[in-house]
ATP-binding protein (Pelagibacterium lacus), 502 residues
Amino acid sequence: MTVEIDMGTTRTGTPARLDLEELLATRLLVQGNSGSGKSHLLRRLLEQSAQWVQQCVIDPEGDFVTLADKFGHVVVEADRSELELTRIAGRIRQHRVSVVLSLEGMEAEAQMRAAAAFMGGLFDAERDFWYPMLVVVDEAQLFAPAAAGEVSDEARKLSLGAMTNLMCRGRKRGLAGVIATQRLAKLAKNVAAEASNFLMGRTFLDIDMARAGDLLGMDRRGTEMFRDLEKGNFVALGPALSRRPLPVRIGAVETSARSTSPRLMPLPETGADAAELIFTPGAEEELRPLPRRAPPPAPRPTADILTQLSQPVPRAEPEPASLFPEIDEAERSAAIDAVLAEILEDPDASFRSVAVLYQDFLVRCRIRRVPGTPPDLNAFKRLFAVARAGVDTEAVASDGWQAALDLAASLPEDVQGVFLIVARAALERRPCPSDATLARAYGSHSASRARRLLTFFEDRGLVVLREDFSNRRIVAFPDLGTETLPGDPTAPATLPTRAAAE
């Protein structure tokens, strides 16, 4: 079934139609300077498609919360923990509820972390809940910046990774990204490049006009038209819109934003009381003394400076003793292993995103007062994969495990833990793990996905799969010179523990 929604009118007065099903497969990028009508365009798109598809709006300014009154969107305030936001996002996909994630009033870094956790929950939903969903991100340059800004590198990587997953890998999970930005030059190129539909509004800077022209296939002279576009007018191109650049005027909307553009209005008549209004504090105004800048110090005589320079250098004071007891590297590693073991004790740990697990890891390290700089995100992924396989510290130092870790390093990070679980079974001569065990380690309930992972390992030349006469599975590792014992693929999930290894 083809569903077309009305976005407005073309230059000739004919309706401007947008193919919603094509949009779900090809994604949309909206660009325009402040005041060009981007939010109005997004609101028109959301209102026209509300009855056809589930929607999620990442709203940094709280402008789209008014959709709740007319169309039943649920407003999710982002002042929650990242774990709670991830779980809410998972339930949203399960129950197919349209929502607005309001990030209003939060600092830039907090907005990035909250949006990353929420989009991670949408992305990591179970396959059974991969229903079509429009994910609209307003002011996308805040969440996928082209360059580092004032926020921390960790927050930027988390947010940029979530946006990249949305635009690059979201289609197979039913997620259709619709991103809007003021300037293409501020938006990460790998995020913008994944969109196949474009609505380009008014812009003035040459670099932004050049990038918009490249996306629309226009020459440099043709990009001059972007300076002359009126508010609410855009140039459309893409399989869901038009095969050739098409000027479009966006139609009216039924809801309005809480914030409006400033309008000129006459000043109030104050008369002679204006000075009294300014200098007299109000009844409820708190009187606070203004900080006064200290006067500059008097200049020192040159003789005093020379005398000070001629004096011997004072001894450096010994560094104060640390508030925490000093421990050696082995004890620190043991403390980190204990934190990882605590995380793995949670039955839901296998189904959380790596970003949420890493935040939980950092909090637990602070609670245990683990000294030193904590491992970064990449080091945590490797440590967590080894811990999930149930390998103790002494076993990791063996030659066999070092070879297994080297083989796992050639795989994507999200499947390394599954590979190490099978490798441990082979090195310890244990039965091959079941499909349910491997699926749980991957963060899924799908047994077929576990079988596909083993096939993926075999296609990479890392393992060889075979069965015995009882149809029990055996996984051989040619590079390690060992193989697992026969195991029942249909057995229930039993994740390995370090106690079993000992």
